[in-house]
Structures are given as structure tokens and as C-alpha cells.
Amino acid sequence: MALAVFLSQFLRDLRSQKLRTFLTVFGIFWGTASVILLLAFGKGIHARQQKAFRGLGEYIVIMWPGRTSIPFQGLGRNRVIRFRETDADVLKREVPHMGTISPEYVLWDAKGRVGKIERLIRIMGCWPEFGPMRNIIPDEGSRFINDEDMELKRRVIFLGTDLKKDLFGDEDAIGRLVFINGVPFKVVGVMVKKEQDSSYGGRDVNSAFIPSSTFKAMYGREYVNNIVFRADDIGRTESVKEGVYRVLGARYKFDPDDKEALQLWDTTEQEKFFGTFFGAFRVFLGIIGAFTLIVGGIGVSNIMNVVVEERTKEIGIKMALGAKPRFIMSQFVIETLMLTGIGGALGFLFAWTVVWVVPRFKVEDYIGTPEISSSVAIAAMLVLGIVGMLSGYFPARRASQCNPIEALRL
Fold it and tell me: Coil, strand or helix: which one is 298?
């Protein structure tokens, strides 16, 4: 019964004070939309940057040979370390929790030819494990290098997306021949286009990949350029790196504590940094949005104080007729919650519409795809509820403490 009375009073005020009600609701609307949109776009930007960074590979370590900087077992410093393909086998066998590993040969200026089209391309010789580690995903109907290619030293080649387009245009490349320095290679795969903002030597979309056994047989390389590996669990990456120093230190006679002997790029460290940075960035955006919502709540509180002033006589009449202070207080609190609820619902609807419309403009490469997560929606509703309750509580408390006689005089 009381709720029906409150609703009736609220609708009456809504009709009589349209502009004031609009401004009150707009403050909450804008605050709610700000909180949700800032966090949604923050999440989209984070996801976009994470995807682009992982184009290089997920949780991988790229290792290059270096020079010793510490004398060890009678051997001097500044000795050059060189990797062989067998080192990858040894590391795979002797380092605990080593997940996947692949050596990598690189030929920087190979001449690739298809018909009359010629390009200077980067050729990489690697193991089959290299593709999944580096997020090199074959397009439909194609494949990456496999174990049989390695065993038989087949002249097969896997092309990056842009390289395939340069050599074959829009034609199907699978099964066709590419001449590398005059030697024919059969195309067995083409890479799915991917985002990649980190690299060492060049983007994968412009590269070609062949079996390491074929590379070594053709070009007579004794040493590999680098080795790529990944722990079987991201939490064990540090222990795997320590194992790599220990095993290669024993193999090449250098101090396992000599960090200059091996040059390691641990992408997990960079990913942790990005995760921390964007986490703090989203918290910052959330705080800004929350303060915007609080400012809207202060506006609501001020409006409700004005309403109390205007309805002082009405409050006095109700209290003179037996209305309890709790009844008066409940009336103003519920009216405030209704205003904040309407503003919040409209703000959420507006934010959802923006998040739904933005991807239609194809701007994912710049700002990612904004996303409203359930945690953001719940947090926004909690903040909205707290703001609404506090905005209504103090004016309602003031109204409930009115002296009926004094109120009737006004």
C-alpha cells in the first residue's frame, strides 16, 4: 500500500517538474554510461594490444648466443657461444618442464620467384613445433611443416600471408611451386593473417618457412641463428630458463650465472608488464567513471534537498495526520532510488548501444572491440545503488526530522 502511495507521488512530481527531473536523471545517466563505456573500451584496448603482442607467440622465450663475461674453469671471458641444432635436442631431453622447442635458421635475402615475379624474401628453417609456438596458423586446406617433411628433407614451403599475395596474388598457392634461389619448393601451407606488433628480424606475414633438415642440407649451415622454446606451464618459465643456462653452461663451458653468454627475450615478462599496466589503466578509468557517477549523485542529493524544502508543508500535514518519520523517510529514499534507477537503466542501455555500434565502423585495429563484462555491469549497479541510497538518505532523514508545527507554519 505504502509503495503505491510513493509511486503515485513520484509520478505526480514527475509530471509537474519535468525539467528538474530530466536534469536529475541525466546526471545519473551520464555517470553510469561513463563508468561502463570507460571500462568497456579499456578492456577492448587491452585485448587488442594483447592479441597483437601474442602474434609473436604465447609465453615463448627466444634465445640467441652471446659472449661469455665471466672466466670459467680456466677459460677466459669474451668467448663466442654458437648454437647447433643438436642443442635443441639436448635441452628438450635434459631440462625439466621444457614444453616445446625449435631451432631456427634464417636466410635473409633469398630470391623467390613465381613465373616472372621475383621477391627478396626471408627464409626460416625450423621444426614443426615452431608454428604452434609462434602462432603461425595454417589457412583452411593447408598445413605447416610436419615430421615427415623433416625426416625426408622435403623441399616444401609455408608462406606468410602477405608473401603469398605478392607471389600469387588472389590465386590459390597450395600445390604450386616457388623457386628459392633457383630451387623449386612446393607450397604446402599459407598462414592465416594475424596481428603482430612485436618481431625479431621481420613480420611473419612476409616470411617463408621450410624444414630445418632441408635448410641445413641445402645451405650447409652448421650453426643455427637462435632457439625458441616454451615451458610446459607458464609458472615454470623461470625454472626452465635456469635449466637452459645450466645445461648449455655445462655443454659450452661457461658459468651458469653468466647472463651475457645467452641473450634471452622472455615474452612472459613483457606480457606480465602489459597485464599490470592495463589492469592499473582500467582501474584508473573506473575511478574516473565512478567519480563522474558520484558527481551525478551529488546533483540528485541537492535536487532532493530542494524537493524537501518545497514539500515541507506537505510533510507537516502528513505527520500531523499520523505519518511516522520512517514513512516520510522511506518516501524520499524510494523516490531517489527510482530516479537513479531510471537514469542508470538509460545509461546502461546507451552504453550497450555504443558498444554494439562501434564495431560496425571497423575500428578494431585502433581501439579493439569494446566489451561490457558481467563484472563491470555488476560493479556499476553496486556503485549506482550506493550512490542512490546515499543521495536520498540525507535529504530523507532531514525530512523525517521535521517538526509538524514548524512545517505547517511554512
Answer: helix
Domains of the chain by residue range: 2-53+272-409, 61-268
Name every residue whose Cβ is closer than 8 Å to that of residue 401 and which is 6 or more positions away in sequence: 325
Check: CB of residue 71 under 8 Å from CB of residue 201: no
Q: What is the DSSP string of 233-254?
A: SGGGHHHHHHHHHHHHHHHHT-
14 has a pLDDT exceeding 60: no
- What whole-number distance in Å separates Cα of residue 296 and Cα of residue 47? 30
Report DSSP letters for 112-177, one per residue. EEETTEEEEEEEEEE-TTHHHHTT-PBPTT-----HHHHHHT--EEEE-HHHHHHHHTTS--TT-E
Strand, coil or helix: 181? coil
* Close Cβ partners of 4 (under 8 Å, ≥ 6 residues apart): none
- Give the percent of the chain with pLDDT over 70: 80
| Strand locations in 221-339 (E) | 226-231, 262-266
Q: Is the pLDDT of residue 401 over 80?
A: no
Say how far apart CA 318 and CA 340 lie, in whole Å. 25
Q: How far is CA 13 from CA 7, 16, 140, 183, 332, in A?
A: 10, 5, 63, 86, 12
Q: 3-state class of 192 per DSSP?
A: coil
72 bridge partner residues: 75
pTM over cut 0.85: no
